Amino acid sequence: RQHEAPRRVKRAWVIPPISVSENHKRIPHLLVQIKSDKQQPGGVIYSIKGPGVDEEPLGIFSIDKFSGKVFLNAMLDREENDRYRVRMFLGAHSPSLGPQPDPDPPTLHPQLRAFALDLGGVTLEDPTDLEIIVVDQNDNRPLFRQDVFTGRVVEGAEPGTCVMTVDATDADDPDTDNAALRYSILEQGAAGMFSINATTGEICTARPGLDREIMGVYNLTVQVADMSGDGLTTTAVAVIYLEDINDNPPEFTKEEFSMEVDEQAAGVDVGKVFVHDKDLAGSSSWLAKFTILEGDPEGAFAIRTDPHTNDGVLSVVKPLDHEVRDRFELTVSVQNERPLEPSTPASPRALATVRVRVRDVNEAPVFRENPRRISVLEGTPPGTAITTFTASDPDTHQIQTLSYALLYDPADWLQLDPHAGTVRTKRELLHPSAFLQGGWYIALVLARDDAEPPLSATGTLSIEILEVNDHAPQLQQPAGVLCGRPGRGGTLLLGATDDDRPPHGAPFHFQLSPQHPQLARNWSIARFNGEVTHAVLAVLAELPEGPYSLPLLLRDSGTPPREQQQLLNVSVCHCGRDGTCLDGVLAAATAGAGITLGALMIILGSTILLLGDRRRALRKGLLQRSRDDMRDNILNYDEQGGGEEDQDAYDINQLRHPELFSTRAKPPLRRDAPLSSGTPLAPRKLPSSPSDIEDFINEGLEAADSDPSVPPYDTALIYDYEGSGSVASPLSSIVSSLTDEDQDYDYLSEWGPRFRRLADLYG
């Protein structure tokens, strides 16, 4: 459309905006004709510059330089550029000089500049802007933001529950109907369960009755149109998934199920019961839970859910016995792990009957009493029947025979009847034995049936070997030495042993023989500090030196008690002032029959004092704390309770230099000595030097062997063996410590006040 020529207002050009439709197809198209009122002789030259002319996009606009007509040379696209602005100039200005500076502020749109010049190139008018507006046409379809929209809604949702929103855009002018969009659902199936808001595109439920088990997914075809629904259109897909709720209880596929299982089987699956649930598989609304309601009072069965198939798996948890019960009829129920929705119609719980038949199989024999415990007296003669150890066959519906055999008999003490199961002694049962464990003898018996294949069972036979009191106690040391003066030194420690085990052994009872009541005038026996195996022999009246033979009666605590009379050979020595045997050390050390409390302490003290030869520091301490030569003195510890002031020395120079002492030698001890003091032998010549001590002892031995007044069995007694059950610790433990430079002597403090000085020195 051709526009009117511009009007001059206050010597300035005023050109109204020029509108042109986009996509104009008549090219070139006259937009406007510009005229200057300052016509000059020879005419005016018009020119324009700016975007669309000499700037990108080039060549869209042009002007006839003589007539001032402005032409459109190409189709315009409003979506690319919705307006153009041309600036026009009048005055002395040459087009060859290029565009003039723009005094106005920049605009948001490209500028077209128009120039009016005379033929001499002089600008006739001030520059002015020519604005060209591109008018929109509905040339763009609305577009959805995505091709497929996805939404979710729970089944059974109420009408009006919104699910999702679909949205679209349009590139046309939003202020025109070209971009006025309207939404609609073209297709959703016959039910018409959903509706859409035409303006916003929000999709909501329109009707009740959404049921995932009937239709779980809805595919809607939605459309958007511009021109308020009468223009261009575009479609998309809206996919709506129904979320499952627990609105369907599980149901058994049938009312009865039958299964079989072998007896004695435990922890095995018997079979399955099958169910169906319309809810979503794998969801909590689908998962089933089974319960055994009736038919299993003993709890022999269990039922669990197979998580993959949702079926019930019946298993045996306790062994079944065909002979006791061969059939079971179980009532089983099923329901969901998750409760049904409140809106779901109420229905009874699903029930099914499961029949289980127990198959009969061969079972192993059973020892009803296992282990079998019996008691047998020791020394029971061979061939004695001690018990009958048999098993029973659980297969009462099958005729089978059991046989027996000894599976384990380590001492070969037993014999077993293979048919009757009678156990007899094969040899005398001895006690003690390496085959006994705490007084019990363990044997294993095998029972086997004659089925194919045969089955067997093992029974344990525990035989307690009862102790019989068949031994009397024996003196540990049948001889000893003591001082013949009442009081200090006039005691002898006695000990006894018994081959029987408790309760047929200790405590022992010591007493003088009742057949010799005269012994009670000079001797007494009392228990030693509460010990059950020892007693103390004491002198009641002063006795002359010499050997004595005392008949003692020893009795144990067995049932019935065993007693035995034994001879105790006692040598009464020459007593010192403090009750020690002045000449009894040699006899105790060599003849060594019994050992008194004092002699035991003498030996221990002598051995400990020998350590002073190897440890000079100890010897120095001993010399500093005592004026006596401790190496030549043995302290008397024949009784408890004394202190350091009781250490009267016994000079062992009697053995080193016997010629210096007038003490006469004592004869060797004889087992047949009279009950009172015997007649001493004639004194022999004492050895003159330590090297003659051996000859001195040998002469005494020869004299004893040649004595016609003693039986021929009399010999010198050997006392290097202490015997079992000695109350004294072995001296070897002390001697062995001599080789250890780091020996710990703290134990000396536990020996009582008599060893306190040594404990202080060694500690």
Automatic annotation (TrEMBL):
- Which parts of the chain span the membrane according to its record? 585-611
Q: Where is the Cadherin domain?
A: 12-144, 145-252, 253-367, 368-475, 490-582
Q: Which Gene3D superfamilies match?
A: Cadherins (2.60.40.60), TCF3-CBD (Catenin binding domain) (4.10.900.10)
Q: Write the record's keywords in alphabetical order, separated by commas.
A: Calcium, Cell adhesion, Cell membrane, Cleavage on pair of basic residues, Glycoprotein, Membrane, Metal-binding, Repeat, Signal, Transmembrane, Transmembrane helix
What is the protein name for this chain? Cadherin-15
What is its membrane topology? Answer: Single-pass type I membrane protein
InterPro entries, per this entry?
Answer: Cadherin, Cadherin-like_dom, Cadherin-like_sf, Cadherin_CS, Cadherin_Y-type_LIR, Catenin-bd_sf
Q: What PANTHER family does the record point to?
A: CADHERIN-15 (PTHR24027:SF300), CADHERIN-23 (PTHR24027)
The record's annotation in Pfam families points to: CADH_Y-type_LIR, Cadherin
Q: Which organism is it from?
A: Falcunculus frontatus
- Recorded GO CC terms: adherens junction; catenin complex; cell surface
CDD domains listed in its UniProt record: Cadherin_repeat (cd11304)
Which compartments does it reside in? Answer: Cell membrane
* Stated role: Cadherins are calcium-dependent cell adhesion proteins. They preferentially interact with themselves in a homophilic manner in connecting cells; cadherins may thus contribute to the sorting of heterogeneous cell types. M-cadherin is part of the myogenic program and may provide a trigger for terminal muscle differentiation.
Q: What is the lineage of its organism?
A: Eukaryota, Metazoa, Chordata, Craniata, Vertebrata
**Which GO MF terms does the UniProt record name?**
beta-catenin binding; cadherin binding; calcium ion binding
Its gene is: Cdh15
Swiss-Prot/TrEMBL GO biological process terms: adherens junction organization; calcium-dependent cell-cell adhesion via plasma membrane cell adhesion molecules; cell migration; cell morphogenesis; cell-cell adhesion mediated by cadherin; cell-cell junction assembly; homophilic cell adhesion via plasma membrane adhesion molecules
State the signal peptide span. none
Which stretches of sequence are listed as region Disordered?
A: 663-690
